[in-house]
Specification:
Elements lengths: L5 H115 L2 H7 L2
Length: 131
């Protein structure tokens, strides 16, 4: 076993204290760096959550607007279908009305043709009466 002089012992103690101090500071710096990193990650996570919440709100708003537009489109399609059906009904009514208005002239034409046929051939009267 070697004995050191008091000066050597003091120097060794100071050296060891210095090493320990440096080592502790490095450890403290590493802990501080880790804490800073954790804080930064927490801030990033909070920002990401805020963005997610804003996007979710936007999606909800757009979903509601889409539902309103679909309801409006459905109502407009129903209105157009009713309008198309009403126009078709009006067209049929016009055809019936036109046919009805032509009916008296057709009857008059048949009457005139029958009278001419009877004037030309009197036996036609007997044939027409049998129907």
């Amino acid at each position: 076993m070697t004995f050191c002089s008091p000066c050597e012992s003091l120097i060794q103690n100071r050296f060891l204290e210095g090493c320990l101090s440096v080592w502790l500071k490095r450890g403290a710096n590493r802990c501080s760096e880790k804490a800073d990193l954790v804080d930064s990650l927490n801030r990033d996570l909070a920002r990401a959550r805020d963005k997610r919440d804003a996007l979710a709100s936007g999606v909800a708003t757009l979903t509601a607007q889409i539902a309103e537009l679909e309801a409006s489109l459905s109502a407009e399609n129903d209105r157009r279908e009713r309008e198309r059906a009403a126009n078709e009904i009006e067209g049929v009514k016009k055809q019936v009305r036109d046919s009805y208005l032509q009916f008296p002239s057709v009857i008059a034409g048949l009457r005139d043709a029958t009278e001419m046929a009877m004037a030309i051939a009197p036996e036609t009267r007997a044939n027409l009466m049998s129907y």
